[in-house]
Structure formats: C-alpha cells, structure tokens
Amino acid sequence: MILKSNGNTVASDVEFATTFFSQSKGLMFKKNVPNDYALVFVFDKPIKTSVHMLFVRFPIDVLFLDDSKRIIKATTLKPWLGTSSSEKIVKYIIEMKQHKISEHGLVEGEQLFFDVP
C-alpha cells in the first residue's frame, strides 16, 4: 500500500519492479491497469534515469522519488511516444493510472510511505 503523509491511500494494489528485467518491462504490453494499481521501481542505489512508453498502450502518471520517498518530479506520459527523465538522482519511480497525481493532490516535496519487500 502507498500512503500520503496525511494517511490517505494512493494505491492499494502495488507491484514492485526490483530486477533489471522487471524494470525494463515495466507496464509494456498491458492493456490497462486497475484504478488502485501502482508499479514501484526500486533501484539498488540512487541513479539518474528515464521512463519510456514503448509498447505501453495507455497514458500514465509517473512519480520520481528520492531515497527519502519524497516526490522530486511528477508527470503524465502519453502512450507509445512519451518519455521523461528524472533529471535528478532518484531511488524510486512509481507508475500509476493517469489522473492519480491530480486525484490525490500529489506535489513535489511530498513524502509517500510504503514498505519495500
């Protein structure tokens, strides 16, 4: 479960991408994801990285987080052609259904809470 600092649930159906393969695949080839779904990329160490939308068929919201799980960038990507760079060093990336950023009022600097398996 991913929670905001005020305790509100952002996502309850959470999957973790911790291997190179699972991170490379991301949401590719999925037709859609449930409304309460989030895919959390967990990197071994903080890095600069980017997200691509190759073979992703639907728009998504993406959060880039530092090692304290604070949002350092929030963006929406279009299917197939969208890309976004972290621009700063990140430890986590969260991919969710489009409109989750606005629905939950997620802003840069906000800290999220979740347990990494």
From TrEMBL:
Stored InterPro entries: DUF192, Saro_0823-like_sf
UniProt organism field: Methanohalobium evestigatum (strain ATCC BAA-1072 / DSM 3721 / NBRC 107634 / OCM 161 / Z-7303)
Protein's name according to its UniProt entry: DUF192 domain-containing protein
Species lineage: Archaea, Methanobacteriati, Methanobacteriota, Stenosarchaea group, Methanomicrobia
